[in-house]
Amino acid sequence: MEIIHQTPMMKQYFSIKADHPDAFLFYRLGDFYELFFEDAQIVAKELELTLTSKNGKNAEHPIPMCGVPHHSAAIYIEQLIEKGFNVAICEQMEDPKATKGLVKREVIQVITPGTYMAALGDKENRYLVAVTNHPLGYGVARGDVTTGESWLTTLPTREAVRREMEGLLPNEVLVSDERLKDVLAPLGIPLSVQTDRIDSDLAVDARDEAQRDAFALLYAYLTRTQKRSLDHLQPAVAYEVEQHMQLDANTARNLELFRSARSGERKGSLLALLDETTTAMGGRLLKRWLEQPLYTEGAIEARLDAVENLLDDFMLRDQLREQLKYVYDIERLVAKVGYGTANARDLVQLRDTLSRIPDVRALLQAVTASRLRQIDAELDSFEELAELLHRALVDAPPISTKEGGMIREGYSSELDELLEAKANGKTWIANLEQQERLATGIKSLKIGYNRVFGYYLEVTKANAKLLEEGRYERKQTLTNAERYVTPELKEKEALILGAEEKSCTLEYDLFVALRDEVKRETKPLQRLARSLSELDVLLSLAIVAEKRDYVRPTTAKHVQIDRGRHPVIETVLGRGEYVANDLTLDDSRRMLLITGPNMSGKSTYMRQFALIAIMHQIGSFVPAEAAELPLFDRIFTRIGAADDLVSGQSTFMVEMTETRQAVTEATEHSLILLDEIGRGTSTYDGMALAQAIVEYIAATIGAKTLFSTHYHELTVLEQTISTLENVHVRAVERDGRVVFLHEVHPGKADKSYGIHVAELADLPADLIDRARSILEHLEAEPAPDEAKRETRPTSETDVAQLSLFEKSDSLTDELLALDLLAMNPIEAMQALYALQQAAKKG
Ligand code: ADP
Ligand code: MG
User: Fold this and answer.
1) Residues making up the binding site
2) Residue with CA nearest ligand 1 atom 9
3) Could you say which ligand is closest to the alpha carbon of residue 753?
4) What is the pLDDT at residue 809?
5) Does residue 817 have its Cβ closer than 6 Å to ligand 1?
6) pTM of the predicted model, to two decimals?
């Protein structure tokens, strides 16, 4: 750096900045945080702040600078964090007024996307994940500093790590080596390579060294960045991926578990539908339940018992919910207390929450389900703490902890005396005003206060001459008035201000002592938070079950769903509009091949089943009249239909990669949904693959499989694969038009309604007529499975003829298969373009 920058302050800046190359350094300078050099340039741009120069714009080597006021810095910091940046907060460690020369400064915290203390009441967890590459496997430690929770697991491959991260979408990831970084970089999550490790007792539950190693990486990072007590961190919970139903990110997206595919919003997702939670903690827990549905019958039944118990008792449900409305986000409150950032309002929220517990417990006396009985037993109302908080804090304290107004009268006699002295002083001053008006005869005389001069008597210029000489001491002259003081007034002022300062300091000390008192209860309060969240989630599931008319599913060996519904679509269409359907699967009938025209409801039927299975395994009631279901270890989905074009990412390679995942990783306990596989390539190519996939699953996996297809030719597989059966979604023709019934029936669909749909979409009549005649022509040809699958071309001419035939056939097929109603103009253009390209190729 040029010599010109080497003022003592800039030297200090450089040495601090050198320790924090990956963070914007918020350098405290009086009432501002200032940023310099590149930090300033980037931040000014990101936050639209004015970029200035520390040494003047015209300096030979201007130092770029921008700043934010310290009292409103939080909002700027949050914006930077949400954009994925890190911020190092550098404070003045001594009082500048009391210091000669350069003030000592230190970074007191580095805030990163994964460690940001998100707002109370947020229904999303904030995950910081550490992944280490250990000989035993990939250790994964996932923590949420805002709640103090963490989890550990070990994954076998980098691919599994990528999938896990894709599913979790953490706020920040730490990895132990560059190769992991390369694998995860495409996810676009803030990511860094870290090497420091600190062992911690919190990892007692770790199952192996890989997990311990990952936690050590996480813990070292937290220690280094947060630079404060981490007492609120709870022991990490180890889980094995096998304990849960595994859902990868792709499946979660296809089934719209957390976000709607169309809008990308939470609204329209299964989560949003199930979320009737009242507390933010419950909202976060519900999401975690959905991220990791159970795979153990006992745990599922325990939840279902609890939901049923709450469902059966309307009064109980209603009253519990009413109580939970007053339960605040104590999980995060406790974390703030641990961090030393909780204010009096936070403690009042805690107090109000605690005061509800006795009522909650009283209500729970009526429950019988064992999980609820257990929750009741775990609830502690912390009477002493609640009473202390009640005695100590006023009902509506200010946000600031430094300006008094927090402590209730009667809690501290010392404080009460100070406040009384202050009040007396103020009364005395108020009386003085009256007194002096009488004495001087000046009715407009008044007493005022400002920060610079303190208390003063004010008299208008016109009246000033009425004052007797020497009555007051002149202090300040304004345009229209004179301001005076008296020795007595100054004396009272000193008393008031002294009392005020002392009382504020005292209040702050009392408050901090109180906060420390709460901090001592960190662990039990976190247990309380856990129990309340679970109660909230169970209640939410009961409320949804009641509101949506769901039924309790039974765990069985087979699948028998009577009149099942798609939970989300039925709410969009209205219950009366939605056509319910049955589904039966067992060991002799493991696969369904679903045919039916476009828009008839094939995809919906498949997804509906997967959603019902997931709901069962989180312990929820399900949208059906009756449901018997086995436990699924994983759900795989491959949606190859037009549905996927919406997201613009359907390439045939993606389709095949996802299929590979399903056929290599599924077990006989898995559920596989393959929706119109093979659509991304030419007809025969796609059809051959589709058939091979079905055969492979049937022969070597045995997973329960729903397979929808627009290849009617595949329906013959029913004859050769004993565990496969055809079903079709019915549509009927009325007056030359298609009417979709959305009813699923045994057997294959007998006719393609593509042309009718095209007609519905008002394609030109000539075109429709032409399509009809082509179809007739094609139907007159031998069926492709007879004609070509068996026969091998024998001569050059045969090959040429065959490929010609194939081309026109496949083009027509593709044209017919276009789901015009579901396409927007751009998609239609793309499809047309692809057809034209294919035509040119031949
Ligand atoms: P396909 O996959 O056969 O092309 P979809 O499953 O995408 O058809 O369904 C198309 C539309 O039909 C859905 O968006 C929905 O509005 C409606 N639909 C599907 N199934 C049903 C049903 N069971 N009851 C009522 N409407 C349905
Ligand atoms: Mg479909």
Assistant:
1) 596-603
2) 601
3) 1
4) 66
5) no
6) 0.83
